[in-house]
Amino acid sequence: MKAQDNFSVDMNVKTAPTDKVDFTETNIGISFNKKISDKNTITNTLEYSNLKVNYDLGSFNAYENLDGFNQIKNKFEISHAISNTTNLNFSITPTVNFQSDLNSDDFSVLGSFEIKQQLNSNMNIDIGVARTTVFGSPKFMPVLSLNYKINNESSLQIGFPDSKISYSNNSRNQFSLSNSFNGNFYHLDLQNNLNNNASKVSLSQMTSAFEYERNVDKNWFLNFKAGYDFDKKYNLIDNDNHKVYDFNTGNGYVLGIGIKYKQ
User: Fold this and answer.
1) Contact 173/212 with Cβ under 8 angstroms?
2) Which of 40, 51, 177, 203 is in the most buried spot, having the most CB atoms within 10 Å?
3) Is the dihedral angle over the CA atoms 163, 142, 10, 52 positive or is it negative?
């Protein structure tokens, strides 16, 4: 591990309660980054996440066995410098999204292709296309971000699906306001007999949040997140990603805490 140019391990726990359904997600990831030549850099990130779902007593009796979901994904990225101001970024992300029984039908492939153009010393733009699950099922969609360094302490990112403004008052503290579209889906176990053609659960929302990261030691970081989920959707969908049941969870706040080791 120490032979790599950069290496990190992080673990995060996030809770997002709503009126009738509470969601708790735990995530752990291992990432390394290495410059393999003057023009090429690779990054590989392996992640496991577990989503626990808790329903209000008596609200969804027929679906209370849909209480836990898992995802394993490996994101491989390569960045190639065409010139001093232009980079091509390509990623491929095999994933398995399942309830409890893992099988070949749970396998999916996500990815992205982007061009990063440096406009001046303080500004660059990313534009491309990605196969992503931000709306609760795998879809191709455009991605775009404008990144601007305001000064030595502040930076701004405006785009889709993520926007953020960050401020650092010293080398150990970073504060951020972010807005992101995010979501996921999970295949249901074959033994589930829901009588409505449901084969997957789908979860999506737009999250606005305040985040704080603290460098507590040379290699250790703590981060805290507090925000609100808007337009939250938790649905059952069929094999063609059509909605067959809506839990109507409503919106709600989100709280998260994480720890990272980075070298």
Assistant:
1) yes
2) 203
3) positive
Question: Is the pLDDT assigned to residue 192 strictly greater than 90?
Answer: no
Encoded tokens for 25 = 């997600």
Whether the predicted pLDDT of 175 surpasses 60: yes
Cβ contact 134:223 at 8 Å: no
User: Which residues, in sequence order, are bridge partners of residue 97?
Assistant: 71
Which three-class secondary structure state does DSSP give residue 11? strand
76 DSSP β-pair partners: 44, 92
* 233 and 245 Cβ atoms separated by less than 8 Å: no
Here the tokens at position 140 are: 């191709």
Q: What is the DSSP letter of 193?
A: -
pLDDT tens digits, residue range 12-47?
999 999 999 999 999 999 999 999 999 999 999 999
Helix (H, G, I), strand (E, B) or coil at 98: strand
Q: Which residues pair with 13 in a beta bridge?
A: 26, 257
Residue 3 pLDDT exceeds 50: no
3-state secondary structure of 250: coil
Helix residue spans in the chain (DSSP H): none
Report the percentage of the chain scoring pLDDT > 90. 87
Nearest to 63, CA basis, from 249, 252, 205, 229: 249
Task: Look at the block and give the residue holding tokens 């577990």.
Answer: 50
Quick one: which of 116, 115, 108 has its CA closest to 132? 108
Are the C-beta atoms of 22 and 53 separated by less than 8 Å?
Answer: yes
pLDDT digits (tens, 9 = 90+) for 72-91: 999 999 999 999 999 999 99
d(CA 49, CA 169) in angstroms, rounded, equals 32
Q: Hey, CA dihedral for 88, 261, 134, 96, is it positive or negative?
A: positive
